[in-house]
Write a structure and sequence with these properties.
With about 150 residues, the chain is mainly α. It has a domain at about 55-135. The protein contains 7 helices and 2 strands. It has helices spanning about 5-30, 35-50, 75-80, 85-90, 100-105, 110-115, 120-130, and strands at about 70, 120. The longest helix has 25 residues, at about 5-30. The mean pLDDT is about 85.
């Protein structure tokens, strides 16, 4: 359990590093705060959310809960091959640059497709879900079969 002192230390380190980053961005590089907020913070968060949007999904059985997004070389490198999420979870200690070969060896495309899903790329995800809900805000335990008794 974390103590108040540990939480204060964590926040102090966080505030110090934020101060240093803002000094570098605003003072040294001369980037306006609004450009940093829109481009780096909002844009970076948007890319992170796009990457992680479909990666984990409750399947209710032994099927893979990790999806695969077959992306182009740019996004694969940007996300350090984390788009091959089934392989990333199957072999969490594997180096990012080994994931494509390990992905093929494990047959992760087929395993993910039978479970959480297989997607052709991030544009396909945007086309499919930009204007439609992906899933409702339901806790996975609520999806269990309610016809069985204890």
């Amino acid at each position: 359990m974390r103590t108040d002192a540990a939480a204060r230390r964590t926040w102090a380190v966080h505030l110090l590093t934020v101060t240093i980053v803002l000094w570098l961005i605003l003072g040294v590089a001369g980037l306006p705060l609004w450009e940093y907020a829109v481009g780096m913070v909002w844009g970076g968060l948007a890319l992170t959310n796009l990457r992680s949007f479909v990666e984990h999904r409750y399947t209710g059985d032994e099927r893979s809960p990790s999806a695969v997004v077959r992306s182009n070389a740019f996004f694969s490198l940007l996300f350090l091959n984390n788009n091959l999420h089934h392989t990333h979870h199957a072999l969490p200690g594997a180096a990012w640059y080994r994931l494509p070969r390990l992905h093929r060896e494990l047959g992760s495309d087929a395993l993910a497709e039978a479970g959480a899903g297989w997607y052709r790329g991030y544009a396909a995800i945007a086309r499919q879900y930009l204007l439609r809900p992906f899933e409702g805000p339901v806790h996975p335990s609520e999806l269990r079969d309610t016809t069985t008794t204890a």
